[in-house]
Amino acid sequence: MQLPDFPWDSLREAKATAAAHPEGLIDLSVGSPVDNTVDSAVSGLNDGGNSPGYPQTAGSPELIHAMVSWWRRERGAGSVTDLNVLPVIGSKEMVALLPFLLGLGKNDVVVHPTISYPTYGVGAMAVGATPLPEDDPDHWPDNTALVWINSPGNPTGEVLDVDRLQRIVHRARQKGALLVSDECYGLLGSDADPVAPSVISNEVVAGDYSGVLSLHSLSKQGNMAGYRAAFMAGDTGVIGSLLHRRKHLGLMVPGPIQSAVASALTDTDSVEVQRQKYSHRRQVLRDAFESAGFTIDHSTAGLYLWATRGEPADDTVAWLADRGILATPGHFYGEAGRHHIRIALTVSDTDAEAVSGRLASG
Ligand SMILES: Cc1ncc(COP(=O)(O)O)c(C=O)c1O
Fold it and tell me: Is 144 or 2 the better-scoring residue by pLDDT?
């Protein structure tokens, strides 16, 4: 299996420069949460701590119930039942393994956004399929087997509206391709638009989940990245076949984590608190970068600002490193991002507020 170098390894030099800043490193390069894990998850984890037997791959009855209720309540997917849901071991695992679990191979194309999370392409490469960065559904080839979309997007923070989602669903069905929408930032919107529409919402598919899946994660909204807790919902046939394969492969979510997820899914208040924190940091960082002459594109929701000074991204990363700030160059997410940088909102309020002073310094 031939996979590319891990992009973040190439940031070592910029990180060393930034870390040498007298006031220390402000790391805006990884979307790894810094706030505490929500209490509901911690108490669920403790309640499930005595776990001598093997967990269910499909999820415990409590978890299945919590997932079904959550999709209906939070994502407007009113027809979801037990047969439409599946827990997974963090969403990265599912992004990377889905082409393998679907049995894709060298004759298949896996479409993903032109500027996107690199693991969509990695999952395709891992099985010898062809990754194709293509945003226009009219340009998807006939042998497209799987289409990834991501809204709100990493790294752009772009949100796909209901019309756009409907057009994508329609085209994927025409092609006979499975459409999977990675919605791990779906509840981390702005104050004006707190929730991004789900591909399996009634508004988009009116209860018809054929050929469509949505993938969600608790890593960001619950500060649970360390738990590896995610889950998906949609087409019963695909969910059933994934479950069958995952049972054989031992891909089960650990019992205590299932208990934590079931508990966190009933806790809507903490998600709103976390959304507001990111909304605040988004504004503070947007103001800081705009005042320093950056242009911010999209970035209305999710965890990132997509920023440019109209120069090659590596030059901007080096300029920021001299000011003790580490950001990610846009080319990690595709050629089209080569003049942008990605700024993560996963920093403390104190660090977010320190950024403008750093950017103003010579
Ligand atoms: C778009 C996207 N999908 C999936 C993931 C993986 O998240 P996790 O494996 O923590 O659920 C990330 C992580 O940053 C992401 O940005």
Answer: 144
Give residue 152's pLDDT. 98
DSSP, collapsed to helix, strand or coil, labels residue 97 as helix
Q: Which two tokens stand for residue 269?
A: 């208040």
- One domain, residues 166 and 58: yes
Task: Please state, in angstroms and as integers, the Cα–Cα distance from residue 86 to each residue in 224, 262, 283, following that order.
Answer: 18, 13, 35
Minimal CA–CA distance to 172: which of 204, 124, 129, 195?
Answer: 204
For 90-108, the pLDDT digits (tens) are 999 999 999 999 999 999 9
Q: Give the structural domain span for 209.
A: 39-266
Q: Compute the mean pLDDT over every residue in the chain, rounded to the nearest whole number.
A: 97
- The total number of structural domains that make up the chain: 2
Structure tokens at 239: 């969910």
How does residue 7 score in pLDDT terms, banded at 50, 70 and 90? confident
CB 332 within 8 A of CB 7: yes
Is it the case that residue 362 has pLDDT exceeding 90? no
Pairing type for strands 230-234 and 328-329 reads: unpaired
Within 8 A by CB and 6+ apart from 85, the residues are: 59, 64, 67, 68, 71, 231, 232, 233, 239
240 in any annotated domain: yes
Residue 113 lies in a domain: yes
Q: How much distance in Å is there from the Cα of 60 to the middle of ligand 1? A: 24
Specify the residue with its C-alpha closest to ligand 1, atom 12.
Answer: 92
Nearest 5°: phi and psi at 24?
A: 90, 170
Task: Report yes or no: 193 and 232 within 8 Å, Cβ to Cβ.
Answer: no
- Same domain for 111 and 64, yes or no, is yes
In a domain, residue 2? The reply is no
CB 281 within 8 A of CB 33: no
Provide the total of helices (H) and of strands (E) in the chain, helices listed first. 12, 13
- Hey, which of 95, 151, 278, 306 would you mutate to test ligand 1's pocket, going by the most ligand atoms within 8 Å of its Cβ? 95
Cα 227–chain centre separation: 15
pTM of the model: 0.97
Q: Is 184 in the pocket of ligand 1 (CB under 6 A)?
A: yes
Given a contact cutoff of 8 angstroms between Cβ atoms, the answer to whether 232 and 216 are in contact is: yes
What percent of the chain has a predicted confidence (pLDDT) above 90? 97
